[in-house]
Amino acid sequence: MFPENSHHPPAVRAPEVHHPTPITPAAPVPLVPVQPNAQPTVASVVLPDGRVVTGYAIEPAKTEPPAAKPPVSRTAVNVALGGIGFAAVCGGLLMLTKFITALTAFVTQLITLAAVIFGGYAVVQIFKPSEAKSGHTFHIRKAVIKRNKFYG
Fold this sequence. Notes:
Blueprint: E1 42-46, E2 52-56, H1 74-127, E3 144-146, E4 149-151
Antiparallel strand pairs: 1-2, 3-4
């Protein structure tokens, strides 16, 4: 609980206790008798200082019952859910087509990269001096195309 290198415990304070002070009314308030379940035509209120205020009774506010919500038809619910499902499917298909397009572009780039690397390697091997050539042989002939026929 205490650090190992401390030579004395921390100072302990006595807890302070707060007692609430009761509030006493200045004068007892007399109650006005009211008939049960009956509202007088004139209401009287006795104030804390003893004065009586008399006035006409205010009719209590009547709360209107909440308007009943019209029931939602099953057809409306099905149409709404179908619309949400259709939107989700359309979004998924759109994402799928974007993925396929991106994958096609990636594969095309890989094929192009392989062709460039292999073509570059072939050109280097062909145009090397004969003493520096490797054991690979590349046969290149001039091809002739006459009247849509290939003569190789």
